[in-house]
Design a protein that fits this description.
mainly alpha; Growth Hormone, Chain: A; elongated
Amino acid sequence: MVNRQKIQLPLQSFSLVAGFMVWVLISSLMPHIKQDIALTDSEISLVTAIPVILGSLLRIPLGYYTNRFGARITFMISFLLLLFPIFWISTADSLFDLILGGFFLGIGGAVFSIGVTSLPKYYPKERHGFVNGIYGAGNVGTAITTFAAPVVAKTAGWENTVRMYIVLVAVFAL
């Protein structure tokens, strides 16, 4: 059990970082995206809210599937599913593309429930708060993307910046 503890907490925490990095892609790159895709303020609000809303709602089924199938398979399927909206957004040229891609980017925020559901199995009850605290620090993924993606987009363009996340997600899917 100790060996599983040693690998599960960092592996699942880094998976949360990756999921959260993807979750905020659209909002982080919106200043660059709106230079190429004409959007009103209301449309920008809608496009940036969709991943957040879906990320919150999808936590319920992901928690259920984690209990049923385990964290490994649930993380893997989640990351495999994330490959499609990332690519879709990297080729976006309309409001519809951003809405559709953002809808599925919500999976990145929903992965939070996977570790919260599965990690307590590896630790005694008196360590659950500590373990979930470490896991929850994976929220730093939102800050990483919020800071780094616009910087990269200045030189690589927002489309290529989004494509770089395909590599990140593919690694975590494996």
